[in-house]
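Morning. Coffee machine broken again, so started the prediction first thing and wrote up yesterday's gels while waiting. Chain of 164 residues, entered below exactly as on the submission form.
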Amino acid sequence: MYSVNIKNSVFQVEKSKEKTLVNGDIMDWNISRINERHFNVLFKGKSLNLEVVSIDSETKTVKLKLNNKPCDIQIKDKFDLLLEKLGMNNTHQHAAKEIKAPMPGLIFDIKVKIGDQVLKGDPVLILEAMKMENILKSPGDGVVKTIKIKKGDSVEKNQVLIQF
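Came back before lunch.
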């Protein structure tokens, strides 16, 4: 079973070799492939043009154009639904909370200031350790709330440096 979210409407989809059920009703459609990204869909006597714009397997999101109108689809499989039911879904996995020092060292440079918007992978500060400069990057998306160190400070391993 799958859960499909289209424009804030959620549909339960069950697929077998013989049929596809959407919210318990049999879906009677005919899909013909035109090329790699284009399809023709016959549904309830109507012909629809379907273009697959992009597929993001990490977020399980498909961007489509249905009769040239954009449509985003979010798909959840049975494991996603189970994790969600148990409260263990990772919908906020890309949100950063804090950056800790991975090793003792000296703060060589701070690349952000309070209020800056950072994305996952953005350089945040440079930590000098064992005569090497180590660029610490944001572990996720966020807004810098607190900077607990300043340039020239000595820090210990696991010390909180920046909070989001």
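The chain has two domains: 2-85, 98-163. Going to sketch it on the whiteboard this afternoon.
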